[in-house]
Amino acid sequence: MPLLLCKDDVVKVLNMADCMAVVEKAFAELASGTAVLPLRTPITPPDGLSLYMPAYLKEMGALACKVVTVYKNNPQKHNMPTVMGKVLLQDHETGDVICIMDGGYLTAVRTGAASGVATKYLAREDKGQIAGIFGAGVQAKMQLWAVAEARDIARALVYDVSSDAVTKFISEMGSKLDLDVRAADSPDQILESADIICTATSSPTPVFDGSKVREGTHINGIGSHTPNARELDTAIVKRSKFIADSYEACLKEAGDIMIPIGDGEFDKSHMYAELGEIVTGTKPARASDQEITLFKSNGLAIQDTATAKLVYDKAVEMGIGNKAEI
After folding, report:
1. pTM to 2 decimal places
2. Which one of 7, 19, 102, 142 counts the least CB within 10 Å of its CB?
């Protein structure tokens, strides 16, 4: 009988610090060769997109598959969200599905957690840093939460084309993190003062001028994840030490790196390392306080699998969820 966990159940048991810890282990497994990670498999029914994201983490004993769907007509036709996700967690010894859980909140937190891990290893270690967030949606909130776990943040600036979204972001995240969060009047205002920048928008084109980024800045790019879209311009990619969540994913899914490579600006060797190589110490991280570091996140199934195992273990311990007869 698999355990069923709704969104509220997942929210009750999942926090950023714990998620960062297991996501860090997952990237270490990927670098060490104990993870199995196929690229996500897309299927396109007439009205939407369905993505299948399986992974296996041998050392963590975690085996799962996330199913994500994107149906643009859902809100109007069915009163349902455009994007939905479920995770099926299996017993890695028997193969039996032991848990089916909502994947929305899990995906948001694990995406933030990857940036948190990257920030832990790549950002400068100064006290009282300023975080700059592009975007004010759910993913942007998770980015700030993770960065605040990884570094001592004194203040955050947020920029979004929606002033209402910014107002809500400031109210929610200022209270949640007990942090001074302010609206930025322009992208340049963030570039002028931020030590750590996160891009979490739906923009298909660059959201700031990369030539204006200060030396020593760390950047987490998470919003764009298709070959023809990019939040980061060629200038900042060229100026940065580029760390990928996965070389393969970046070369097949990330317009941020694919577009400048296609334009002949540089080749794939510009990618310095995968995050797992940094975590395991296979390659050194930041070389100086002047270096600009850039983590490009596409979102990997190892993150979902590690987080799903964490959620399941904590739910069982706390007696949360319902058993289903199948």
Report:
1. 0.95
2. 7
